[in-house]
Amino acid sequence: MNFSSKLLENAVNEFGNLPGIGKKTALRLVLHLLKESKEDVDTFASSIITLKNNIKYCKTCHNISDFDICEICNSFKRDHSLICVVEDTRDVMAIENTNQYNGLYHVLNGLISPMDGVGPADLMIDSLVERIKNQEVKEIIFALSATMEGDTTIFYLHKKLKDFNLKISTLARGIAFGGEIEYADEITLGRSITTRVPYENTLNK
Ligand SMILES: [Zn+2]
């Protein structure tokens, strides 16, 4: 792309660095912003800077939050004996949208993936074990993607958790293998949480 302006080129390159945004789309977005009022562009830019500077991660479940402890962990209406283990904040949003789950979450911040150099130590696993040791947890639900990485992570976690006095369940597989849970429709996802199965039952099959 030949740009008539270095400023334009810089902005297009920044947008083009975002996932799923090609150069053409980046150019369209930047030209759109140029047509907006200065106030609108200031609001847009400052929302990103404010987000980056002020966002917190819940000290208990690691979900993205405006507070040190997120609203879910802080709620007396939630069942604190139930922890749903997910990959990232998008999964929390997807499960919350089903209105079928009233427990807490634990966000791992990824999945074990030797191919990508992600090992157990890179994930929020120790803090999950601490929560189970220190709180009245009765059940852990693995709500991880039905992928190789998801299965590897569940297998690892199960080994770490199986000696605790806990029920360990996994989503009923209405979600096809390779399915990312954030993309599952709300009804399917809601059903697979309410009809979750003991993890042990999914082994030896
Ligand atoms: Zn939390």
Task: List the main descriptive attributes of the protein structure presented here.
205 residues; alpha/beta; Helicase, Ruva Protein, domain 3; Dna Topoisomerase Vi A Subunit, Chain: A, domain 2; 2 domains; 5-stranded mixed β-sheet; two-stranded antiparallel sheet; 9 helices; 7 strands; 44% helix; binds zinc ion; zinc-finger; DNA_Rcmb_RecR; metal-binding
Description:
Belongs to the RecR family. The protein is an alpha/beta fold and 205 residues long. Helix content is 44%, strand content 13%. It has helices spanning 6-16, 23-35, 38-54, 71-74, 89-98, 126-134, 148-161, 186-194, 199-202, and strands at 56-57, 64-65, 79-86, 103-107, 139-142, 167-170, 197-198. The strands form 2 sheets. The protein has a 5-stranded mixed β-sheet with strand order 4-3-5-6-7. Strands 1-2 form a two-stranded antiparallel ribbon. β3, α5 (89-98) and β4 (103-107) form a beta-alpha-beta unit. α5 (89-98) packs across α8. The chain binds zinc ion (ZN). Zinc ion is lined by residues 58, 60-61, 63, 69-70, 72-73.
What's the structural blueprint in terms of helices and strands?
Layout (H helix, E strand, L loop, with lengths): L5 H11 L6 H13 L2 H17 L1 E2 L6 E2 L5 H4 L4 E8 L2 H10 L4 E5 L18 H9 L4 E4 L5 H14 L5 E4 L15 H9 L2 E2 H4 L3
Parallel strand pairs: 3-4, 3-5, 5-6
Antiparallel strand pairs: 1-2, 6-7
Helix pairs in contact: 1-2, 5-8
The structure holds zinc ion (ZN).
Concise description?
With 205 residues, the chain is an alpha/beta fold.
